[in-house]
Amino acid sequence: SELKPETFxxxxxxFYNVIEPAKSFSTTYYSIQKGLAALERVDExxxxxxxxxxxxxxAPVIDFQNEIxxxxxxxxxxxxxxxxxxxxxxxxxxxxxxxxVGVSGGGKTTLIDLIVRYFDPSTGNxxxxxxxxxxxxxxxxRALFGIVTQDAVLFNDTIANNIMFNRELNVDRVKWAAKxxxxxxxxxxxxxxxxxxxxxxxTKLSGGQKQRLTIxxxxxxxxxxxxxxxxxxxxxVEAEKNxxxxxxxxxxxxxxxxxxxxxxxxxxxxxxYVLEKGKIISSGNHSELIENCNIYKGLVQMQMF
Length: 305
Fold this sequence. Notes:
Blueprint: H1 5-46, E1 67-75, E2 85-93, E3 97-101, H2 108-115, E4 123-128, E5 131-132, H3 138-142, E6 145-149, H4 159-164, H5 171-180, H6 184-188, H7 207-221, E7 225-229, H8 237-250, E8 255-259, E9 271-276, E10 279-284, H9 286-292, H10 294-304
Parallel strand pairs: 3-8, 3-9, 6-7, 7-8
Antiparallel strand pairs: 1-2, 1-4, 4-5, 9-10
Helix pairs in contact: 5-7, 7-8, 9-10
């Protein structure tokens, strides 16, 4: 039969109006299926029970008052793997700046993980103010530590929300933390200030800017112990200088545990432990180690060169 022009154009118009919803429906269905598959993988991880438990649910931890004591500590990841740490004995007193140095693979990060109790030692024990770690509530213990790592973890959200980190706080407190972290100047120069979106993993910011935001986050949490895990090792000279100023402010009145490859950042530490192949081979302040430890002296000389 004859197809009149007005009928043809009505058909084309109707088809055009149907095709977009159909495409959207198929795209949405695909996204739902992809999300469900991801949810299953996330659920598998969330349902795994932690091996780190406390005896009788653990005693509450109110504050860090005196010292963390590590006695005859050894650790291996599985019974069949080599020892990562062997015979570690040391004390971290309240208010001290303690640093760990050594070549890669010496066990520095593993020792930090044990101090925060991400793992339990294979032998030996760790105590907080004379109380065994295993007798303390895990969440209370970990709340004593604020951690600034080499890789800044930022979310696709505003600067303010990244600093607050899911805490119910007002913007004045956020600005206070940013000022101490020397982040307020660059934040206020951004088009939307504290409400600027940083992008996924902070892609809209430089390395030094991202690091100062994580320092501000740690300051806002106000933990008694700050852990700095190679916090400046990936930065250029100018960014490192700014971040180091921020760290110096953040560490005032705090106990600090520092892992550093750039030894210029730990010259003022109260005590420096040199690790090699999982053992502490020497300890002392910067001047003492320059005089008495050839490995430390060699690391310093290489970096000066």
